[in-house]
Amino acid sequence: MIGLVDVVLDHPQPAAAAVGLFLVHPDYRRQRIGDDLAEALI
Asked: Within a 10 A sphere around the Cβ of 3, how many other Cβ atoms?
C-alpha cells in the first residue's frame, strides 16, 4: 500500500466531503504522490 485517504461524504454539508486522514508511506514521500492525489481529490 502506498497511501491511505479517509473521506467523510456529505460532511460538513450535503454534496461535500471532508478528508479526515491523508497518509503516504515513507518510502514514497517526496515523489509528489501526495500532491498529485490531493489535486485529484479537489
From this structure: 13
Number of domains composing the chain: 1
Structure-block grid coordinates of residue 17: 466531503
Question: Region 3-29: what's the mean pLDDT?
Answer: 95
Pairing state between β 17-24 and 3-9: antiparallel
Mean pLDDT (whole number) for 20-35: 95
Residue 15 sits in which domain range? 3-41
Q: Is the pLDDT reported for residue 41 higher than 90?
A: no
* Contact in structure between 4 and 26 (CB atoms under 8 Å): no
Question: Alpha-carbon distance 12 to 29, whole Å?
Answer: 29
